[in-house]
Amino acid sequence: MRPDCWRAHYKPWVKAIADYAHAKGLSVIYHGCGNVNAIFEVYIEAGIDAYQPLGSQSGHGVLDLRRRSARMGSVAIAHPSVGDG
After folding, report:
1. Which residue, 48, 20, 57, 55, is CA-closest to 69?
2. Is the preceding peptide bond at 53 cis, omega within 30 degrees of 0?
């Protein structure tokens, strides 16, 4: 999704939810799938406190995203070449 489209159609709703949670003293962890490099800053603008997962398997530049924000992420413990069993 293009950043301008996400900003126009989704950010207002996500920001409203984040603002409500923050008013209640809660942090907001946003779960999404896929590569969000192009809209990562929009999550921050919307008040997201942490993004999960930040995994290289989704095409994220994990180290780059960590440098851009101190947000939480997770790393998959199973690797396709090793299996998960």
Report:
1. 48
2. yes
Q: Within 1-85, where are the H helices?
A: 3-9, 11-23, 40-45, 62-68
Query: 3-class DSSP state for residue 83?
Result: strand
| Total residue length of the chain | 85
Q: How far apart are CA 17 and CA 33, in angstroms?
A: 19
Record the pTM: 0.66
Report whether 31 contacts 50 (CB < 8 A): no
The first and second tokens of residue 9, run together, are 């159609």
**pLDDT tens, residue by residue, 5-49:** 989 999 999 999 999 999 999 988 888 777 777 888 888 889 988
Direct distance between the N- and C-terminal alpha carbons of the chain, in angstroms, rounded to an integer: 35
